[in-house]
Amino acid sequence: MVKKSEYRDLFPGALELMILQTLNRKPMHGYALAQHIKDISDDLLQIEEGSLYPALQRMLKTGWLESETGLSPRNRPVRIFKVTVAGRKHLEEERSSFEKMFAGITRVLTVAQS
After folding, report:
1. By CB distance 3.0 to 4.6 Å, which of 15, 53, 76, 88 could disulfide with 72?
2. Residue 17 and residue 21: Cα distance in Å, rounded?
3. Are 20 and 64 in contact (CB under 8 A)?
4. DSSP secondary structure letter of residue 47
């Protein structure tokens, strides 16, 4: 018997949306970002390094993020990521699109239950 996974894959763009939203509130390094998302979601979302760092690199290349060298709380050198103006614009567009999609899914699920 196959055990159903407790975790599900994110829909396309969800990781970028969460990264932008989180960094829009406060610049941080990759590990802190992953921990923040995990904590805020009550451990429902766990972002693996193999997904997080490639996404951060893609977002740097698209101009949605910029980075600078900083120090971790343990005085280790880290790369601090922050959202650019283009990233904020993309975040607002994606949030609007997500909210519309979520509203549509909610309507379908509600009708399906009645």
Report:
1. 76
2. 6
3. yes
4. -
Q: Three-class SS of residue 101?
A: helix
Residue 49: how many other CB atoms lie within 10 Å: 10
pLDDT tens-digit map of 74-105: 899 999 999 999 999 999 999 988 888 889 98
- The structure's pTM equals 0.80
Is residue 11 exposed (0-12), middle (13-18) or buried (19+ Cβ within 10 Å)?
A: exposed
Q: Which parts of 1-114 fold into alpha helices (H)?
A: 14-25, 30-40, 49-62, 85-113
**3-state DSSP call for residue 28?**
strand
